[in-house]
Automatic annotation (TrEMBL):
One of its GO terms (biological process) is L-histidine biosynthetic process. This is Histidinol-phosphate aminotransferase. SUPFAM superfamilies: PLP-dependent transferases. Pathway: Amino-acid biosynthesis; L-histidine biosynthesis; L-histidine from 5-phospho-alpha-D-ribose 1-diphosphate: step 7/9. It comes from Govanella unica. InterPro entries: Aminotransferase_I/II_large, HisP_aminotrans, HistidinolP_aminotransfase, PyrdxlP-dep_Trfase, PyrdxlP-dep_Trfase_major, PyrdxlP-dep_Trfase_small. Keywords: Amino-acid biosynthesis, Aminotransferase, Histidine biosynthesis, Pyridoxal phosphate, Transferase. It catalyses: L-histidinol phosphate + 2-oxoglutarate = 3-(imidazol-4-yl)-2-oxopropyl phosphate + L-glutamate. Residues 27-357 form the Aminotransferase class I/classII large domain. NCBIfam families: hisC. Pfam families: Aminotran_1_2. Homodimer. The gene is hisC. Gene3D superfamilies: Aspartate Aminotransferase, domain 1 (3.90.1150.10), Type I PLP-dependent aspartate aminotransferase-like (Major domain) (3.40.640.10).
């Protein structure tokens, strides 16, 4: 007997690496590596979560009706056009599972969300990485890479890990240029933080395109990453396909109830957004003044580019970003160094509370002045 044989694409699957949450040796640890909100969820969401604990012996509402109604009311969407998932990750996976398989291609930009290739490979499809331009999705390049085998395209807007975005006109050009048998997943996980005048939440395109899925999450500005709640919005036929392929009880009652309370507290969201805008601008100015390059961001994090110098022995390069990452870690600040995403000269910093933003800038300054311990 040869024993169990997994599908070859499952056997070789990469495991998604989340942001670190421990800093060895440091007494105070501040996690700024996973784009979580520094405020946590609305206190009303925490109260709703606790209340839901009294019904733990009951199965959750398999249709998440109340939650979909709350989301629909906020966004002006028909709840029939909303599917909820265990994080938006589940929605991304449902989309590839429904429309792609072995022999099909799934497209996404270079320097985009690390889950896209994992989702593609999870169903045996071929991940195709499309070159980007100035760390931003390149609509022409994406359209050029569409082949007869392309089934799904992922575009994060604003994008993780770069914070860059596509303006409304470019999203429209992309959507209009796609064949109708290719599903475009517009991943709007950071939508609430975007405020560029030419950015637009893509939902308004859904009525015109049966092959568009917009995804969103409660893990960022809504602050309930631990409860895993995301959702997708599309035309009823598309949503019904995704809905049929999810687990019936995919969302615990605690998650549904906390999500409803979170969405009802829009003052909390406005406060978080204003804080983010203020400190994103501040960090930009302060870090640029230190001689670093900050990639303009529309999200709740910024990508900081450090200069690279040739190593003293002439072998490869001296990765200043790696050293800065280690220095910050020793002082309890966890950022994200991204060599695997081809960004070994960059650190991604999630925008934190005022004192932590100030502390990070101070530490980077000390590091640049030569301090190493
Ligand atoms: N899309 C993007 C672009 C993300 O950055 C993330 C989280 N890092 C997600 C989707 C997934 O979020 P969740 O599954 O927590 O909803």
């Amino acid at each position: 007997m040869a024993g169990l044989t997994p599908h070859p694409w499952i056997e070789t699957l990469d495991v998604y690496e989340g942001g670190k949450s421990k800093a060895d040796g440091a007494t105070k640890v501040v996690k700024l590596s996973s784009n979580e909100t520094p405020f946590g969820p609305s206190p009303k969401a925490i109260a709703a979560y606790q209340d839901a604990a009294t019904t733990l012996h009951r199965y959750p509402d398999a249709t998440a009706a109340e939650l979909r109604a709350a989301i629909g009311a906020l966004h002006g969407h028909d709840p029939k056009q909303i599917v909820c998932g265990l994080g938006s990750d589940e929605i991304l996976k449902l989309a590839v599972r429904a429309y792609a398989g072995p022999g099909d291609e799934v497209l996404f930009s270079r320097h985009s969300f690390a889950m896209y290739p994992i989702a593609a490979m999870g169903v045996g499809a071929t991940p195709v990485e499309v070159p980007d331009r100035e760390l931003t999705a390149d609509v022409d390049a994406i359209l050029e890479h569409v082949s007869d085998r392309t089934r799904v395209i992922f575009v994060a807007n604003p994008n993780n890990p770069t914070g860059t975005y596509l303006p409304k006109s470019e999203v429209e050009r992309l959507m209009a240029g796609l064949p109708d048998n290719v599903l475009l997943v517009l991943d709007a996980a950071y939508d609430e933080y975007a405020d560029a005048p030419d950015y637009m939440a893509p939902d308004y395109l859904v009525p015109s395109y049966p092959n568009l899925l917009v995804t969103r999450t409660f893990s960022k500005i809504y602050g309930i990453a631990a409860l895993r709640l995301g959702w997708g919005y599309g035309q009823p036929e598309l949503i019904s396909i995704l809905d049929r392929s999810r687990d019936p009880f995919n969302l615990p009652t605690t998650t549904q109830q906390a999500g409803i309370a979170a969405i009802l507290d829009q003052d909390w969201i406005a406060m978080s957004k204003a804080h983010n805008r203020r400190w994103r601008d501040w960090l930009n100015v302060e870090l640029t003044a230190l001689g670093l390059t900050v990639v303009p961001s529309q999200a709740n994090f910024i990508l900081i580019r450090f200069p690279e110098t040739a190593a003293p022995d002439g072998q490869g390069s001296n990765r200043m970003a790696e050293g800065a990452n280690a220095f910050l870690l020793r002082h309890g600040y966890i950022l994200r160094w991204l060599p695997k995403q081809g960004l070994g000269d960059c650190l991604r910093l999630t925008i934190g509370l005022e004192d932590d933003n100030r502390a990070v800038v101070d530490l980077i300054k000390r590091f640049l002045q030569g301090e190493r311990a």
